[in-house]
Specification:
The protein is of the alpha+beta class and about 190 residues long. The protein has one domain. The chain contains five helices and three strands, in the order H-H-H-H-E-E-E-H. It has a three-stranded antiparallel sheet, with no helix packed on it. Strand 2 and strand 3 form a beta hairpin. Helix 1 packs antiparallel against helix 3. The protein is flat, with a radius of gyration of 29 Å. The termini are far apart. InterPro entries: Rpr2/Snm1/Rpp21 (IPR007175). GO terms for molecular function: metal ion binding. Keywords: Metal-binding, tRNA processing, Zinc. Belongs to the eukaryotic/archaeal RNase P protein component 4 family.
């Protein structure tokens, strides 16, 4: 008998998810650097006659790139596709990637561009250092994501120790001991 295949199951789906995330990140960064944001256009480039061909027709092949809104919308569409692929194939995304995507509008959260993040402490005067919460606010939909800063993450259900069975066993043992002690020998 041959051994079963080792390695990653659904490798094409993982590759597709990785591609969609990388493409969405690239488009979000391209929107940040977009036309006119950090580069200054020379006066000759803004002249409408520059794009004219010698026969008097406008050359439409020379484009300055897509607008910021278009690249943001395309980035959001790619992230929506990423979410649908992971839901259909039941593949878990790492928490680091989940934190960079808005749950409501599927915008890639880039600090200072599409979101702002602050650390809040709602305890009295901020006295409890373990109560710090990182709040990320999306500029697109104005929703907030809140993450505890110093708290340890709970293990997933299959990896947790079964506490309930241990507690039930100790309660049953104490009740049996109590019943045995209350019984008097004949």
């Amino acid at each position: 008998m041959a051994k079963g295949k080792t390695g990653v199951h659904n490798r094409p789906m993982y590759s597709r998810i990785s591609f969609l995330y990388q493409a969405a990140t690239y488009l979000a960064e391209a929107a940040k650097v977009g036309p006119g944001s950090t580069q200054t256009n020379p006066p000759a480039a803004t002249d409408p006659d520059v794009d004219m061909e010698p026969d008097g027709h406008r050359d439409n092949t020379k484009r300055d790139g897509c607008s910021t809104a278009t690249t943001q919308a395309l980035s959001r569409k790619l992230l929506t596709d990423l979410r649908s692929v992971t839901l259909k194939t039941q593949i878990r995304i790492t928490p680091d990637i989940k934190r960079t995507i808005c749950k409501h509008c599927d915008t890639l959260l880039v600090e200072g561009q599409t979101c702002t993040s602050t650390v809040e402490n709602a305890s009295k005067g901020g006295r409890k250092p373990w109560a710090d919460v990182l709040t990320i606010k999306c500029h697109t939909c104005s929703r907030q994501k809140r993450f505890p800063v110093n708290a340890q993450r709970q293990k997933r259900r299959p990896h947790r120790a079964p506490k309930l069975q241990k507690e039930v066993a100790t309660v049953e043992a104490t009740t049996i001991d109590a019943q045995l002690q209350t019984q008097t020998p004949p």
